[in-house]
Amino acid sequence: NIVKNALEAIGENGAVTIRLGREGGRPRAVVEDTGCGLTPEIRANLFTPFFSTKPNGQGIGLTVVQEILSQHRFEFSLDGGAPGTPTRFSIYF
Fold first, then answer.
1. Do residues 91 and 47 touch, judged by C-beta distance below 8 A?
2. Contact 29/19 with Cβ under 8 angstroms?
3. What integer best gives the mean pLDDT of the chain?
């Protein structure tokens, strides 16, 4: 769902970068997109059930992602994303 959202955010000329590596000795996966960014209002509601910015969105995708990561005790963060800057979703294993 994270990759799907990133692909939908970039439009025709954007890019999605997926990196796997370590940060501070911890394994990490990063999905970064060059989409339109996130306003503070959207960012504040991203993990709210049934909130969607898409015309036909159901608003459950990121809620499910959050639940799965939490149940497996993975930490995650959403960085950047201000309009005009890359949005970066990191998962720490």
1. no
2. yes
3. 93
CB atoms within 10 A of CB 62: 20
The two structure tokens encoding residue 43: 């960012």
Determine whether 37 is exposed, middle or buried from the number of CB atoms within 10 Å of its CB (0-12, 13-18, 19+).
Answer: middle
Answer yes or no: is pLDDT of 81 > 80. no
Helix axes 61-71, 2-10, angle to 10 degrees: 140
DSSP result, 51-66:
--SSTT--S-HHHHHH
CA-closest candidate to residue 65, choices 53, 74, 56: 74
Of the pLDDT bands very low, low, confident and very high (cuts 50, 70, 90), residue 88 is: very high
Least confident span in 3-7, 74-78, 82-86: 82-86
- Whole-structure pTM value: 0.89
